[in-house]
Specification:
By secondary structure, this protein is mainly α. It has one domain (3-72). The chain is 78% helix and 0% strand. The protein has helices spanning 3-49, 55-75.
Length: 87
């Protein structure tokens, strides 16, 4: 094989790996921030209600919230709405 083809394939492999790394980091940071914010919200809410803080329930809630946050862009339409209903 020619050296150009090998270098081109190597560059494509590096680019694909970086894209994969960026996508995985997006999921990690979403999970981390959702986990922290839901834990804080659960702690403050339980303190205001006068009940005990439940770490496991807050963790399960943060996982469900993360899944919802990651699914919303997939479920929402990407194209703009029609102007037919506007007067």
């Amino acid at each position: 094989m020619k050296p150009f083809i090998i270098l081109h394939a190597y560059d494509n492999m590096k680019r694909d790996f970086k894209l994969l790394e960026v996508n995985n980091m997006r999921y990690f940071w979403t999970l981390l921030w959702t986990f922290l914010l839901v834990q804080m919200l659960t702690y403050v809410s339980s303190a205001m209600l006068g009940v005990g803080f439940d770490f496991v329930a807050a963790t399960i809630l943060s996982i469900f919230a993360t899944i919802l946050i990651l699914l919303l862009p997939v479920l929402l339409p990407n194209e703009p709405a029609d102007d037919q209903g506007h007067h």
